[in-house]
# Entry
Amino acid sequence: MFSLKTFSNRMPSVVSFALVGVVGLGVAGCTEEKAEVKEIIRPVKVVEIAKAGDTRTLDYSGSVRARTEMNLGFRVAGKITERLVDIGERVKPGDILARMDSTDYELAVKTAEANLAAAEKAVETADIVNRRAAQLFDKNVAPKSQVEQASLSYDQAISTRDAAASALNQAKNQVSYTELKADQNGIVTTINADVGQVVGSGTPVVAVAVDGEKEVQIAVPENDIAQFKPGKTVRASFWSDDKLVLDGTVREVAGSADQQSRTFAVRVSLPNDLRVLLGMTATIEADVGNSDTYVSIPLSALAQKDGKKVVWTVDRGSETVHVRDIEIADFTGDGVRVAKGLGSGDLVVAAGTQFMSENLKVKLPGQQSASAETDAAVR
# Structure
């Protein structure tokens, strides 16, 4: 049997041992947690800088058109009374495309005919006078001056008759010009005037694309026009048919730029292919020498540090990132062109640059981290 005093004296020792045990467990737990802390390895998305090619491709859009397109108009002025063709119709030489009112020109023909008839009568009268004067001179009745005057009057009458005949032919031509006719085989592409409209001489009324060679006209800016020379081979593709690709040849380059667009007109001849129709939209592609050594990166890869433009590159061996200063050439619609600082084969972090720090361990796409490989080996 123990006394209460004895029990009370022993209690502190038991509590002390318990506290010591709890503290010991806590310290051991902290030690284990510290031992389990792993190195942070951040997965990154990267782009690899490719080697700049020796050539680059220029492409410009245009439309298919006939090499020769005639804007036909009447050779006389007047009021259009009839149009005989529509857009898209085929025509051949001699086909009548339109007519105009020929009343005034037919009246001019009648006037010319009357003038010619009068001139012919004048010639007959002058001939009679001339012959009579010659007879009287032979009989010594009329002086020589009268004979000479009669001869001159006869010659003048003949000239007047010839002029009247020419005027008649001209008047008849004017009547024929009131019919607008096709000169070559082709297809009507444009109607510029219609029935009831009064047009002047030479005013375009109907446009006809002549059968034969087709071509594409493109507009090239001045910084690339030196790359297009007559005879250069290019490729022509068409929006209506992705499989239709033809080899074309630069036929003509404008000698001066357009005053408004400041571009040069370039005509590209196409081979004869029935699938190519007038008005189709075409893209002309030309391979030219590449003097541009710039490399492109996504806009998301661009970062800034200490007021400088930088990118984060990945060292393949150590799998760590490092900052690198770059010099920007310009910005494009899909990224940034870099003039200096990057070379072929460099790995550039393409996203998440705000989370990068010098010598940060990273994991490349499709690659396991070292710790993950170790865990897999232990398991």
